[in-house]
Every structure is written in C-alpha cells, then in structure tokens.
C-alpha cells in the first residue's frame, strides 16, 4: 500500500492537481482573507467528490494560504491514512470497500 506523505509546500499541492481560490472580502470583515484548495477526486461508481480545504485569516492572504495548506495536509492524512494525527509517510488505510486509495486521485 502506498505511503501517505505530506506535500512539501503549496506549489506541490498545485502540481498534484489542486486548484487555489483566494478571496478578499474587504476591510472590516471577519475572516477577511479566505483561501480554498480543492480537487475533484474519482471513486468507484459515483463515489467521487470534491476534496477541499479552507483557510481563513483576518491578518493576511498569506496567513489564509498557510491555514488552507495545513488543513489540506491534515485532511489528506485522515482520508488516505485513516486518522488525522497520523504521521506523514504512514501507509494508506483501506477504504470502506477494503481496497486502497490512489493518493490524490480517489
């Protein structure tokens, strides 16, 4: 089974097919800066879906980018490794049908 390794940085996530959306809601708004990293993933039959991580900040777009990237790493570890606290490099856990995932594809 393949290892679940963290992406080295946001550029690596984008190279893996994730798309980035940045939103600036304007001065004086709570969660002014929002970053969304997302990718459509496939699955058996109609089991595919959207893999998405969101980061927000009142301080800067860069802080929202960092929050989204960290959320994406935790979600990937959970989805492919079976637990959000699992370390980068752990093996992939079987999915609900007993088969392994294809990292960043299913």
Overview of the structural elements:
There is one protein chain. The model has no long low-confidence stretch (mean pLDDT 81). Helix content is 25%, strand content 26%. Strands 2-3-4 form a three-stranded antiparallel sheet. A two-stranded antiparallel sheet has the order 1-5. The chain has one domain (3-91). The chain starts with a strand and ends in a 15-residue tail after the last strand. It is elongated. With 106 residues, it is α+β, with helices and mostly antiparallel strands. The protein contains two helices and five strands, in the order βαβββαβ. It has helices at 10-15, 61-81; strands at 3-4, 19-24, 33-41, 49-57, 90-91. A hairpin with a 7-residue loop joins β3 (33-41) and β4.
Average of per-residue pLDDT values = 81
How many distinct beta strands?
5
Give, in order, the helices and strands. Answer: EHEEEHE
Count of domains? 1
The largest beta-sheet arranges its strands as: 2-3-4
Count every helix, treating DSSP H or I runs of 4 or more residues as helices.
Answer: 2
The percent of residues in helical segments reads 25-40%
In short:
This protein is of the alpha+beta class and 106 residues long. The protein is 25% helix and 26% strand.
């Amino acid at each position: 089974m393949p290892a679940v390794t963290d992406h080295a940085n946001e550029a690596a996530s984008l190279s893996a097919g994730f798309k980035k959306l940045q939103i600036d809601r304007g001065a004086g708004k709570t969660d002014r800066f929002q970053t969304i990293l997302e990718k459509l993933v496939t699955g058996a039959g109609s089991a595919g879906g959207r893999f998405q991580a969101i980061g927000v900040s009142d301080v800067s777009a860069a802080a929202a980018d960092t929050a989204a990237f960290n959320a994406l790493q935790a979600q990937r570890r959970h989805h492919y490794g079976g637990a959000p606290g699992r370390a980068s490099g752990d093996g992939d856990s079987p999915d609900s049908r007993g088969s392994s995932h294809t990292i960043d594809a299913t």
